[in-house]
Amino acid sequence: MQLFFVLYLMLLSTEVSTLGGHYSRELRRGGVRLPLATKGSPRSRDFAFNLYRALASADPGHNIFFSPLSISVSLAMLSLGARSHTKMQILKGLGLRLRDSPEEALHRAFQQCLQTLNGSQNDLQLSLGNALFTDQKLDVQDSFLNSVKVLYLADTFPSNFGDPAKAKKQINDYVAKQTKGKIVDLIKDLDSDSVMVLVNYVFFKAKWKASFNRKNTQEKPFYVNSETVVQVPMMNHEDLFYYFEDLHLSCKVVGIPYQGNATALFILPNVGSMEQVENGLNGKTLQKWFKLFRRRQLQVYLPRFSIEGSYQLEKVLPQLGIREVFTSKADLSGITNHSSVHVSEMVHKAVVEVDESGTKAASATGSVIMFRSAYRRNSKVVFNRPFLMLIMEQRTKGILFLGKVTHPEVGTSSERPQAPMKGNGKSPRPHLSAE
């Protein structure tokens, strides 16, 4: 018997808006505030950065993009059905210290996060959810079903995996609906002896408060490395942005708020300092950046790009101490009484698109990033070499998405001249298998 477990689905689509002038006026009046990240748990953010380093080391030189929030929610939900050392490894990997905080606090925190993030907003689309598809022949523990419904707001559906084509269509139709048609055919293959599929999804779409004018976008060089230079469509816009130069880590950080309760951080390491910045990422570093951010007049150069990441997490999470759940020693008796089940694959996929779609900004822009200090001294911040991107949600102080843009890709997969950069080249086929 196989127990399919699918950890999937991140989709991020960002658009810029036409409110650049309005944003500037609000900043000058002091009416727009960057979310303070100091209330969040550094340990929860350390999971995100530890996972980033593991993904980056497994695929050096490639684009990285994933959702730490979605992965941690999925692992926490899986821990509800784990027992003994299997549970302890998952909770410890997530950064929970049971001597300081009970396990229930973790699940209640995620429950509150899900309730908050799924609240309606007029200017930002954000939804995070879970679904459990179970075969009628599988005896699932009632306590597990109740917990995923109450704590993780999961939809539950009976499925007939004896008819793989029908079950696959049921799951793919659900995913397509939840992602507004952006993700289709999530499940490629489904075995007739499969008994469970767990789906996790995130959908995020927002507009910049400070817009980029499409007319100012020009082809500019992007220095992938010392030997490779590519031409990319470089957007630019001059406005008041949040800015901090971290001399200790040798990088510049620009904070660009979206409409709504989210903010993007773009981190530009100095030449030759990418590894130093990556190794220095942690919760305390993030707190320091938000504390020391100052509003500065900048002319931001940022590539228009579209990248994706696809990862086999069962090969990466053991580096964070989450091992047993992927072996024959796994104890998942909290899910089902069926013996010898373990997670054989966990797949995570994320997509990000950043462009200036629909922009009608009237504010003045230029072809060079400029920084005007109190002394009118001009400075330049140009994202024309590999940089990091981080998106945070203001109310929960959570990291929604984290990534590295090493080689910007533009357009849909059919339009791109180069193959998309991925975490690995394997097609996702995630499942829990029983030995």
Automatic annotation (TrEMBL):
Q: Name one GO molecular function term.
A: serine-type endopeptidase inhibitor activity
Domain named Serpin is located at: 49-408
Q: For the region Disordered, give the residue spans.
A: 410-435
Keywords, A to Z, come to:
Protease inhibitor, Serine protease inhibitor, Signal
What InterPro entries does UniProt report for this protein, alphabetically? Answer: Serpin_CS, Serpin_dom, Serpin_fam, Serpin_sf, Serpin_sf_1, Serpin_sf_2
Q: Which residues form the signal peptide?
A: 1-18
Q: What GO CC terms are in its UniProt record?
A: extracellular space
Q: Which Gene3D superfamilies match?
A: Alpha-1-antitrypsin, domain 1 (2.30.39.10), Antithrombin, subunit I, domain 2 (3.30.497.10)
Q: Does the keyword DNA-binding apply?
A: no
Q: What family does this chain come from, according to its entry?
A: Belongs to the serpin family.
Know the name of this protein?
Plasma serine protease inhibitor
Its lineage reads:
Eukaryota, Metazoa, Chordata, Craniata, Vertebrata
